[in-house]
Amino acid sequence: MRIGVVCYPTFGGSGVVATELGHAMAKKGVEVHFFAYKQPVRLDTNSKNIFFHEVTVPEYPLFKFQPYELALSSKIVDTVIKHNINLLHVHYAIPHAYAAFMAKKVLSDQGINIPFVTTLHGTDITLVGSHPFYKSAVSFSINNSDLVTAVSDNLKKQTIDLFKVKKEIEVIPNFIDFSIHQSHNENCNRENIAKKNEKIISHVSNFRAVKRVLDVIKVFEKINKKLESKLILVGEGPEKEIAQRYCITVGIENNVSFLGESKQVYEVLCYSDLFLLTSQAESFGLAALEAMMMSVPVISTNIGGLPEINIEGVSGYLFDVGDIKGMAKKSIEILSDQTTLQKLKKSSRENAKRYDIEKVLELYIDVYDRTLK
Ligand code: GMT
């Protein structure tokens, strides 16, 4: 089998899911061809069966907006023909599903049938896709995909509520590769980061408004008043500067580290005691799952797909969006009691095992087989 995978190359979860799924398929002997405007951050082009095709959009002064979908569709068409690709899997509907549909039409004109699977990830439906300026095209791309998957029950429900969906949507959750990170919480060099009695709290995101990063800081501010603690933030995005400024204003800047787009997410999680995810929308929350896998309990909001992943009292606790007081109180409670903390750390990792890549991979293989038939 030869698959074409279209994704965003950035640090966002949809690109990570696409890349890790591609790597797992490649290990099973499938030839996997990635399409993106730059090499996805976690893509290892030295791996066997992995190929990367950069989509370049030539600049032309007439265009105010460069036609990325057009360049992507053309690249898909040419690569499908050249490498005899049998199936496309596009992650994030905008504009990938639309481009895949166009490529399929162009190829069909040449007597080539290429089915495509669309995986909906979240904001392609909730925040961006449902915008009236995009809605018709997104509806069309969903309905004209050969098979559609969504990363949580909640996202499936939201898609049905927001769009006129004629297509069946199958739920395949995101996943995590336990084989890569067996030895969690060992040899983390924690002593380089914090003092022995200091608690370490972390957050990973793209710092967009939807993540409410300021809430993360405000929760930490309250924790920090009661407990010796440090906050480590990984990621880059529009709200970062506001967050940095707030830390200086309230005088906690020496206890807060902004690491930017670090590739050392697992290293940070390895020495973390608690993970904060205060988003106002989150279809799945891959960052929270990564934390659990590394035995880090999660204090999160209770929106979107988060209640499917974060189980109250098992992997962490859930609160209404904006309930800074509640989140801080619970965090202090957990962090102050070593027995509770250790118990939660253990059960967080157990909870994450529901999303072991080995289980989820089978679901995707089945999707690919059915689509090809
Ligand atoms: O739009 C974003 O926030 C980025 C997007 C992505 O590309 O990672 O995130 C969405 O997809 C992730 C992977 O499936 C999910 O874990 C995130 O919950 C989801 N983000 C939102 O729903 C806000």
Structural class: alpha/beta
User: Kindly state the mean pLDDT as a whole number?
Assistant: 95
Assign a percent range to the helix content. 40-55%
Small molecules in complex: ligand GMT
Strand order of the largest sheet: 3-2-1-4-5-6-7
What is the alpha-carbon Rg in Å? 21 Å
* Tally of helical segments: 13
The proportion of strand residues reads 15-25%
Number of domains: 2
CATH superfamily of the largest domain: Glycogen Phosphorylase B
Low-confidence stretches: none
* N-to-C SSE string, H for helix and E for strand: EHEEHEHEHEHEEHEHEHEHEHEHHH
Task: Say how many strands there are.
Answer: 13
Give the name of the CATH architecture of the largest domain.
3-Layer(aba) Sandwich
Regarding CATH, which class of the largest domain?
Answer: Alpha Beta
Shape: elongated
* CATH topology (level 3) name of the largest domain: Rossmann fold
Describe the biggest sheet? 7 strands, parallel
Termini separation comes to 12 Å
Key phrases:
elongated, alpha/beta, 6-stranded parallel beta sheet, 13 strands, 7-stranded parallel beta sheet, 373 residues, binds ligand GMT, Rossmann fold
Please give a structural write-up.
It is a single chain. The chain is built from 13 helices and 13 strands. With 373 residues, it is α/β, with parallel strands linked by helices. The chain folds into 2 domains: 2-175 and 356-372, 3-Layer(aba) Sandwich (Rossmann fold); 180-354, Glycogen Phosphorylase B (Rossmann fold, 3-Layer(aba) Sandwich). The strands form 2 sheets. It has a 7-stranded parallel β-sheet, with helices on both faces. Strand 6 (147-150), helix 5 (153-162) and strand 7 form a beta-alpha-beta unit. The longest helix is centred in the N-terminal third of the chain and has 17 residues, at 93-109. Ligand GMT binds at residues 8, 12-14, 17, 92, 121-123, 151, 174, 206, 208, 210, 281-286.
